[in-house]
Amino acid sequence: MQDAGFEAWCVGGAVRDALLGLAHLDWDLATSATPQEVRKLFRRTIPVGIEFGTVGVLDRDGRMHEVTTFRHDVKTDGRHAVVQFGASLDEDLARRDFTINAIAYDPIARRLHDPFAGQVDLARGIVRAVGDAEARMREDRLRALRAIRFAARLEFTIEAATWVAIVGSAPHLTRLSPERVKQELDKTMEQVRYPSTALERWRTSGAFASLVPALASVPDEVLKAVDALPMPGPPTRPLRRVLRFAALLSGCGAKAAERTLRDLRASNQEIAVVTSLVDRWAQHGQSCGDMLASGVLPPAPELRRLAASVGRLRVTAFVRLAAARWHSGSRVIAPALVRRLHRTLIATAFRDPIEIADLAVDGDDLRRAGIAAGPALGRMLAHLLEWVIADPTRNQRDALLAIATAEWHETRDARIDDVRRERGMNG
Ligand code: ATP
Ligand code: MG
C-alpha cells in the first residue's frame, strides 16, 4: 500500500497487545487510501463495513485483516457515529477511546506514532480516555463498559477523570442496546482471568444498577465465585462462559436469573442451562455445603436425590458451580472432599435409577394394571421414583406394580370426591 503512495499504519488492539508482549491474532490497519482504492490494491478483499470505511483483506494464510480508511466523527448520539473520510492519521487516532488504543505503528519504517502518550500509560498500567473523558463518554456510552473491561483484562487501574466519567455515564447506559451490553459481559467472562475486578466496577460505578438491576448490590462472595471458574478461551468454550454466568447469578434465585438473561437477550439455550443450575444451587447448595464442611459426604439417598434433581448430564457443571461458591464462602471445605463428591455423584447418576425412564415399570404397565391414563398416572410414576431413589433395590417390576395398584385403590375415594366437586362446580 505504501508502494502505491498511501499511508498504512497498524492500529488498535494489536499494537497495544504487541507492546505488552501479548499475542493478538489479527492486525487492524488504518490507511489514507479510500475503500475503493484498497479493493483495487489487493487480490482478495471482503467488503466487511464499507460504509464505515472498512475492507477485509485476506493475507497469504487466508487470515483476514481489517483495513479502515482514516476517518473522524462528525456527529455522535451516545452510540452511533457519523464518520467522514479524508481525515489524517492524527484525527483518526483522536477519535479512538483510550490512549493505550490510540498508538499507531508503521510496519515498514518500524516506527511508532503515539500522540497521546499511550506507551506511558501502558508502562504505568493506566486506562485513560483520549482527550476530555466526560465528553468522550458522552459521545459513546459503550466506552464506559470498555474501559472497565480493558482495565480488568490488563490488570490496569482507571485514571481518575476517566473513572468519574464512567460513574457519570452509568445513568445513561440504558441507551445501549441489550445485545451490546450482553456482548460486553460475554467478553468480560471470556477474556478476563479475574472477572470480579470488572464486575466490582460495574457495581460501584452504578452500571449494574442501570443495566442489570438484579446485580446492583451483588456481594463480593458471589463475584469471587466467578473468579474461581476457569476462563473460557480462546478457543472459546461456551460451557465455561455459561458457568461463569451461573455463578454471577447464583445469588439471585432462578426466577430473577431467568428474567435477567431474557432482558439481556441471551439465547434460550443459555437461559435454560443457567436457570437450571441457579435453581439447583438454591435448592441444594447450602445443605450439601454444610455436610461437606463437617467433613463428610451427604448420605447415599441424599446423593441420589441430588443427582436426580440436577440431572445426569449436569452433574459436573453443578459440582463446578457449587465448588466455586463454596470456595469463595466463609466455610472451609476440603477440595479432596469436593472431588469425592463429584466422583460419587457421577457413579450414582450413571448406575442408580434416578429418572422415571429408569423405573422397572412404565406408564403402559400401570395402565394395564388398571390405573387410568392422566395426571394421576404421572404422579404415580413420580411417587414410585421417590420410593426407588430412597432404596434402589426396590426397583422390581412386581413390587412396583403392587404398590401402584394398592395406592390407586386407597386413593379411589379421594378421586371420586374430586370428580364430584368438579361436576358440582360445572353444574
Ligand atoms: P479486543 O482485543 O477486545 O478486540 P481492541 O482494542 O482490538 O480489543 P476493538 O473493539 O476490536 O478493540 O476495536 C479496535 C480499535 O478501535 C480499538 O483499539 C480502538 O482504537 C477503536 N475503538 C473500538 N471501539 C471504539 C469506541 N467505542 N470508541 C472509540 N474507539 C473505539
Ligand atoms: Mg479487536
Describe the structure.
The chain is α+β, with helices and mostly antiparallel strands and 427 residues long. Among the domains are: 142 residues; 68 residues, no CATH class. The protein has 21 helices and 11 strands. Strands 1-2-5-4-3 form a 5-stranded mixed β-sheet. Strands 6-7 form a two-stranded antiparallel sheet. Helix 11 crosses helix 16 and helix 13 packs antiparallel against helix 14. The longest helix has 26 residues. It is elongated. The relative contact order is 0.05. The model has no long low-confidence stretch (mean pLDDT 94). It binds adenosine-5'-triphosphate (ATP) and magnesium ion.
Query: How much of the sequence is in beta strands?
Result: 5-15%
pLDDT under 50 segments (min length 5)?
none
Beta strands, count:
11
Number of helices: 21
The termini sit apart by 87 Å
Helix content: 40-55%
Instruction: Give, in spatial order, the strands making up the sheet with the most strands.
Output: 1-2-5-4-3
Class by alpha and beta content: alpha+beta
Search tags:
single chain; 427 residues; alpha+beta; five-stranded mixed beta sheet; two-stranded antiparallel ribbon; binds adenosine-5'-triphosphate; binds magnesium ion
